[in-house]
Structure to design on (68 residues):
């Protein structure tokens, strides 16, 4: 999935890590982790509908989270 991060387009291959919230009707929020085509590791909140990734918000680099 492509995202604009710091003004650059980054393609991130997301993986589900942990369920955050199950809204029912096939809508589930997951904590997701993925590696971008820039070689960085990212974390975010992914929204899935019927097991399909719809959107990822609050994307942070792993480096930023470790230094937080």
């Amino acid at each position: 999935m492509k995202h604009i991060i710091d003004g650059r387009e980054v393609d991130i291959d997301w993986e589900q890590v942990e369920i955050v919230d199950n809204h029912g009707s096939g809508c589930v929020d997951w904590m997701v982790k993925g590696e971008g085509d820039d070689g960085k590791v990212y974390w975010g909140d992914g929204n899935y509908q019927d097991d399909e990734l719809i959107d990822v918000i609050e994307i942070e680099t792993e480096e930023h989270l470790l230094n937080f």
Summary: Helices lie at 62-66.
